[in-house]
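hey so i finally got around to running the thing on that chain from the lab meeting. sorry it took forever, my laptop kept dying and i had to restart like 3 times. anyway pasting the input first so we r on the same page abt which one it is
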Amino acid sequence: MSFQAYLDNVEAKTGKSPEALKAIAIDEGLANASGLAPGIKPGAVVDWLKRDFDLGHGHAMSIVAYIKGKRS
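ok and heres what got predicted. didnt touch it at all, straight out
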């Protein structure tokens, strides 16, 4: 599955775009405009996405990668 397919599936499941999830992560203190917030490990973001949005590990990791700047 391509990176874009993961992002598309996340949006279909959550109703939120990757950019919207990044904005929520920023509001939650897990991220900032340039990536993960200082001191935040990817696992904390994955746990949040699993808990609040019922995402699987691979889909949550695609959002972590998106937050960190990956686009393709």
